[in-house]
User: Which sequence fits this backbone?
């Protein structure tokens, strides 16, 4: 009975499969509609933000809202008034950032709020082969780890005066590359072996159906989100938006 | 080598995932840095494999088994096809399979074969560029959409249809340089430390 307490879903918990569907949907949305009406764009972006908020990552939500509001502000008030070539080039960079921004936010939702076990059990329910499931799940788990490792490595490099600066990259590119890559490879190698040992001791290679302490299933909220995205896709396909 | 040790085990799959993460993160970071300026964007097929070569060499050294390279190519294909370029996944899988068989010809031991294998594998980076041949106008439209019309015009001037062979050549050479660089790095740093 104790297990039920642990495995209970928080009110706004969603299935990793829904998060994936959201990532694909927002990816297609951003790439097929270059300039959607702002209301629709806000609606689409608020979808991952609500769930990130539900996981308690308030600062992420505030930061991304501010960035997005700034991007919209630039688009609405500054872009129409710029005519010079360089101005357009710089503004088009903001345009690209705005295009990738919702994808990045959804990727944060997917990567930061999903554990490896949740990934594994959700993918298993799709009956995909292990040779695909395990590398993909580990990959998502590993991306934040690499970012963290990189932060420590680059600060250590700066401390020794061999930091990744434009000057160092231009004057001694291969050496700088070597200084960057060797620690990264070293830590990837050791951490992956530790992770493998931990997973094996939890019986990942046992070859029979595994149970998960966290229940992974599509609930009402998942269906609401999926229906919402489906509806928007149809509206996009028909050409209403 | 008998069949048993040559098969991917769960431990190998986990190591694969970790190295795929490193490969993909470096790929995305480097491409998005180089991607803003048309000139360096054109150099992507040459520069990126040089940076990724050591990762590939380390990865194949850790997982010298059949299937490892194909799985990596599938993941790279999924990431490069994210912008809706679906040929990229197919292209990546084909390239990955060829690279896999080259490594297999060296019985997963020969360093030379791994260098050849990465020269081929480096071509996965071309996936998104393939569009330049198959649907140039669509490609330029999408560039104009993301990067502005001026960028698209510059890119248009730089990309006659035969450019794709130049790209393939660039990534073959880039892959060769990167793999040798990786081989050197591994010999210098990892053999000593006993990580094999």
Assistant:
């Amino acid at each position: 009975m104790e297990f039920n307490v642990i495995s209970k879903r928080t009110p706004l918990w969603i299935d990793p499969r829904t998060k994936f569907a959201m990532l694909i949907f927002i990816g297609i949305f951003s790439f097929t509609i270059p300039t959607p009406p702002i209301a629709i764009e806000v609606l689409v972006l608020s979808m991952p933000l609500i769930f990130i908020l539900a996981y308690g990552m308030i600062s992420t939500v505030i930061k991304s809202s501010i960035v997005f509001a700034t991007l919209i502000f630039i688009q609405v008030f500054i872009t129409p008034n710029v005519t010079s070539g360089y101005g357009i080039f710089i503004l088009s960079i903001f345009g690209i950032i705005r295009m990738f921004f919702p994808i990045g936010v959804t990727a944060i939702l997917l990567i930061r709020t999903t554990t490896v076990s949740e990934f594994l059990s959700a993918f298993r329910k799709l009956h995909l082969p292990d040779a695909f499931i395990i590398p993909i799940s580990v990959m998502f788990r590993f991306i934040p780890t690499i970012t963290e490792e990189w932060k420590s490595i680059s600060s250590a490099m700066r401390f020794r005066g061999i930091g990744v600066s434009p000057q160092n990259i231009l004057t001694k590119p291969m050496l700088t590359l070597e200084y960057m890559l060797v620690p990264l490879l070293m830590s990837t190698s050791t951490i992956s072996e530790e992770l493998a040992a931990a997973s094996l001791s939890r019986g990942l290679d046992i070859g029979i159906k595994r149970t998960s302490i966290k229940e992974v299933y599509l609930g009402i909220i998942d269906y609401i989100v999926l229906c919402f995205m489906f509806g928007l896709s149809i509206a996009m396909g028909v050409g209403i938006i | 080598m008998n069949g048993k040790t040559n098969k991917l085990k769960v431990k190998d799959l986990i190591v694969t995932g970790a190295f795929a993460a490193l490969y993909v993160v470096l790929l995305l970071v480097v491409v998005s840095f180089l991607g803003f300026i048309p000139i360096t964007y054109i150099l992507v097929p040459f520069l990126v494999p040089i940076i990724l070569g050591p990762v590939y060499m380390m990865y194949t050294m850790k997982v010298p088994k059949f299937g490892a390279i194909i799985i990596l190519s599938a993941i790279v294909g999924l990431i490069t096809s994210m912008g809706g370029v679906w040929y990229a996944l197919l292209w990546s899988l084909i390239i990955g399979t060829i690279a896999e068989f080259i490594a297999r010809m060296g019985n997963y031991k020969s360093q030379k074969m791994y260098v050849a294998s990465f020269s081929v594998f480096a071509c996965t980076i071309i996936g998104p560029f393939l569009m330049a041949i198959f649907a140039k106008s669509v490609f330029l439209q999408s560039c104009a959409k993301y990067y502005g019309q001026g960028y698209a015009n510059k890119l248009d001037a730089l990309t006659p249809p035969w450019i794709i062979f130049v790209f393939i050549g660039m990534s073959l050479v880039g892959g060769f340089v990167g793999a040798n660089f990786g081989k050197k790095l591994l010999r210098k740093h990892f053999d000593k430390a006993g990580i094999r």
Chain A has two domains: 1-115+214-241, 128-213. The CA atoms of residues 121 and 157 of chain A lie 40 Å apart. Residues 1-7 of chain A have pLDDT under 50 and may be disordered.
